[in-house]
Amino acid sequence: MMDFWDNFITNYKPHLGVRANTFDKMFNYLEGLKQNNYLIVETGTTRRVPNWGDGNATILFDLFIQKYGGQVNTVDINPDACKVSHENTSNNTLVTIGDSVNYLHRFPNPDDIDLLYLDSFDLDWGNPHPSSFHHMKELTTVYPKLKKGCLIVIDDNENGVGKGQYVAEFLDQVGDKLYFDEYQIGYIKQ
Q1: Given a cut of 90, is residue 51 above it in pLDDT?
Q2: Which CATH number fits domain 4-188: 3.40.630.10, 3.40.190.10, 1.10.1040.10, 3.40.50.150?
Q3: Are strands 177-181 and 93-97 parallel, antiparallel or unpaired?
Q4: C or N: which end of the chain has fewer Cβ atoms within 10 Å?
Q5: Separation CA 76–CA 54 (nearest Å)
Q6: 118 - beta bridge partners?
Q7: Are 157 and 145 in contact (CB under 8 A)?
Q8: CA 138 – CA 118 distance, rounded (Å)
């Protein structure tokens, strides 16, 4: 079986485009925690395989967990996307059909989350506010319970606009550490 890093670098990273560097940073951050058990929570799930335009995050998170241990929890309101995600991941990934804000509000152990990946509610670049506001609701429902060191990542951002616009403003104001600011934005909770 191919090592996670060899597999990621050879088979996935070349196809990730604007997300290649930040996925690399996410996995390096997680690996640097030197844990035996990781918890990754994702809103929005893989809709098609392969789907390089969206990054296939669920598939990548599942591969990481298969190597390093733990669980991926992914939620999406679209049953068809959840079916695709379930069929293309291991038993280490729990796929839930439902509203992401409600799901995060009821999540049983948010203080164990190592990576919170916010990528639901498709973005309309001509009107980014509904998506950005939705991601802010996701964050605020779980943020107080997240542990120090949790990596919070929001997809689909360019020049301060996108899904993470309000999330980034909030995390800056509360003093969390900006880890990367590219097409994806990542913060480490302080």
Answers
A1: no
A2: 3.40.50.150
A3: unpaired
A4: N
A5: 14
A6: 43, 154
A7: no
A8: 8
Question: What pLDDT digit, counting tens, does each position of 132-163 carry?
Answer: 999 999 999 999 999 999 999 999 999 999 99
Domain boundaries, the chain: 4-188
pLDDT bracket for residue 49 (50, 70, 90): confident
Q: Residue 183, Cβ neighbours under 10 Å: how many?
A: 18
Are residues 185 and 153 in contact, defined by beta-carbon separation less than 8 angstroms?
Answer: yes
How do residues 7-39 score in pLDDT, each as one tens digit?
Answer: 999 999 999 999 999 999 999 999 999 999 999
Report residue 34: phi and psi, to 5°. 50, 55
- Confirm if 143 and 110 have CB atoms less than 8 A apart: no
Name the nearest CA neighbour of 184 among 89, 42, 88: 42
**Local confidence band at 55 (pLDDT 50, 70, 90 cut-offs):** low
